[in-house]
Amino acid sequence: MTDKMIGLGFAALGVAILVLSLQLPPPLAATHIAYGAGFFPSILGIAIAVAGGALALKPAGDPDEVEDEEAELTHWSKPAVVMVAGLVYVLFSQQIGFLILAPIILTGLLLLGRVAVGQALAIGILGSVIVYILFAKLLLVPLPLGLLALFGAHL
C-alpha cells in the first residue's frame, strides 16, 4: 500500500474515533470534573486524523527509494516486538502493576530502537512516572498497582 492510502485510512480511523468518543456520556455533575470518558479518546482521534492526513498529503518519494523501503518492510522483527510488548502489558499489568511493568517495557523498546542505555533508563522511568501522575492523579484514571498495591495509599 502507498503512504497516501495508509494515511487516508488512518485519517478515517481518527475521524471515526472522534465521532464515537463524542457520543460517550458526559461526566456526572457530582464529580466536579470538567471532562468525561470521551476526553482522551477525542484527543487521540484528532491526533490520529491529523497524522493520517499529513501522511496522505506527503509528496511521493523517489521510485528507487520506494523499492528500498519495500525491501525493508520484510523485516517484521521490531514491529513484532512492539506488539508482544503491548500484549505483555495487557496480560500482566494487573498482577505486576503499571509502575513496575511500564518502565521495563518502555526501556526495552527504547533499547531496541538503539537509544543509549542511560537515556533509555531515564526516559523509561521518568516517562512512566509522568504518565502515572498525569493519568492516575490528574485525570483520575485508575492504573493497576499490582505488586505495589500495599503502598496504594502513598502512590
Task: Give a concise summary.
With 155 residues, this protein is mostly helical. The chain has helices at residues 3-22, 39-57, 63-72, 77-96, 98-112, 117-138. The longest helix is centred in the C-terminal third of the chain and has 22 residues, at 117-138.
Description:
- The protein is mainly α and 155 residues long.
- The protein folds into 2 domains: 1-71; 75-155, no CATH class.
- Helix content is 68%, strand content 0%.
- Helix 1 runs antiparallel to helix 2.
- It is flat, with a radius of gyration of 19 Å.
- It starts with a helix and ends in a 17-residue tail after the last helix.
Descriptors:
68% helix, 6 helices
Quaternary structure state of the chains depicted: single chain
Beginning-to-end CA distance, first to last residue: 46 Å
Query: Which residues form runs of ≥5 with pLDDT under 50?
Result: none
Amount of helix: 55-70%
Q: Sketch the topology as an H/E string, one letter per element.
A: HHHHHH
Radius of gyration equals 19 Å
Mean pLDDT: 86
- Proportion in β-strands: under 5%
Count of DSSP-assigned helices: 6
Count of folded domains: 2
How would you sum up the global shape? flat
